[in-house]
Specification:
Largest sheet: 6 strands, mixed
Order of helices and strands: HHHEHHEEEHEEHEE
Number of domains: 2
Helix content: 40-55%
Strand content: 15-25%
Low-confidence stretches: 167-178
């Protein structure tokens, strides 16, 4: 049922709130869906791989299914199926060489326009699952800005934050907190 502006005006004049409650529900759902699309677009425009260049040599996007040791850890019961699925839900997973140690590492990277405590915790938790599988992993979270809680939690959990208030533009200007 399509609701027109005239219908809304009539309902307001009649004092009826039923269809307006439905309209409020639909608009709230639409707001959530638009926010999800904007976040997804932001994740793409953030260019996580390029931003890792200061920390990791030649980062290459990968996936948990491409890492034999990770699948073996699942088969051996070292990690659970839900943990395997958690890692599969990472925004980005990269393989490369840690510039500070020269060792091969994986990078668990969560991206959000506004990085909050939960984004940082997800990066740390998913990196911990990969470590549980015997892999060397760095945890990162990135976005345009971070809450104070995210910044504090990143320090506590050893997650590197990469912040860029101009993310998605042609001129990156990283601000990293290690």
């Amino acid at each position: 049922m399509a609701i027109t502006v005239a219908d809304v005006e009539d309902l307001i004049a009649e004092g009826s709130r039923g269809p307006l409650n439905e309209l409020d529900r639909v608009l709230a759902s639409l707001d959530r869906n638009v926010e999800l699309l904007l976040d997804s677009d932001f994740e793409h425009r953030f260019h996580a791989r390029e931003r890792l260049g200061r920390f990791v040599r030649r980062p290459v996007a990968t996936a948990p299914v491409e890492i034999e040791a990770f699948d073996e850890a699942l088969d051996a019961g070292v990690i659970s199926q839900p943990e395997h699925e958690q890692v599969a839900a990472l925004d980005h997973l990269f393989a490369g060489r840690d510039k500070s140690t020269g060792r091969d590492v994986l990078v668990a990277f969560e991206v959000s326009k506004r990085v909050d405590r939960r984004d940082v915790e997800r990066a740390a938790e998913r990196a911990a699952i990969l470590r549980k599988a015997g892999l060397e992993v760095l945890a990162f979270a990135g976005g345009q800005r971070a809450t104070q809680g995210a910044t504090a939690r990143a320090v506590e959990l050893g997650v590197t934050l990469i912040l860029d208030r101009d993310a998605g533009t042609d001129e990156p200007s990283d601000e990293s907190l290690e």
